[in-house]
Design brief:
Blueprint lengths: L1 E4 L4 H11 L4 E4 L16 H13 L6 E10 L20 H15 L7 E12 L2 E14 L15 E3 L11 H7 L1 H12 L1
Parallel strand pairs: 1-2, 1-3
Antiparallel strand pairs: 3-4, 4-5, 5-6
Helix pairs in contact: 1-5, 4-5
Length: 193
């Protein structure tokens, strides 16, 4: 079975490919450079996932999956939220986003148990310009003071999931892929697929 993932993020593609397994052939937007980019103008993860899935499904003759996900930090009023990838600016790097997050947590005076956060993900499946289903997943945790770990991407090196002592960047990919926000959303999606 073939699935187009409406992203240019190879890390997300690798995670979803691993979650779906060998029965699925997963490609992403990097294999379709002629497809026009979709502006993420939504104010929620579901809105942005839907925008991306619908736009790509108008160009692709099959099932399309779009993911919109990000980090919500309670001490920052839910920021960075839907702006997670662009928190420090439109073309910010992951390192710049993490640095700004740590600076803002420090400015807010949030310490220890005041640094609660969650990763949230919405998956939208579309075909022929229409959304077929959406699925949501979230994982609670805490933000730490300094980066730990070499794996993962985005804010993974600052996020310790509830019930663990290691950051997402320290956990093996197989472990992260069973408890992450994306894994939880995909688990519900797999039952539907």
């Amino acid at each position: 079975m073939h699935l187009l993932l409406a992203t240019h993020n190879s890390h997300k593609t690798a995670e979803i490919r691993a979650m779906l397994g060998a029965d699925w052939e997963v490609t992403d937007m990097n294999a379709h450079p002629a497809f026009p980019p979709t502006e993420e103008t939504g104010t929620t993860f579901e809105a942005n996932a839907t925008l991306k899935a619908v736009a790509a499904s108008r160009e692709f003759g099959g099932l399309v999956l779009a993911d919109d996900s990000g980090l919500e930090v309670d001490a920052l009023g839910g920021a960075p939220g839907v702006r997670s990838a662009r928190y420090a600016g439109e073309h910010a790097t992951d390192a710049e986003n993490r640095a700004l997050l740590l600076e803002n947590l420090s400015t807010a005076g949030a310490r220890g148990k005041q640094r609660t956060a969650r990763f949230r993900c919405v998956l939208a499946f579309a075909r022929d310009g229409s959304v077929e289903r959406t699925f949501e997943g979230a994982v609670e945790g805490t933000m730490i003071n300094a980066e730990r770990g070499e794996g993962g991407f985005g804010y993974d090196s600052l996020f310790v999931p509830e019930g663990h002592c290691e950051t997402f960047a320290q956990l093996p990919a197989a472990a992260k892929n069973t408890l992450s926000h994306r894994a939880r959303a995909m688990s519900a999606a797999l039952a539907w697929l």
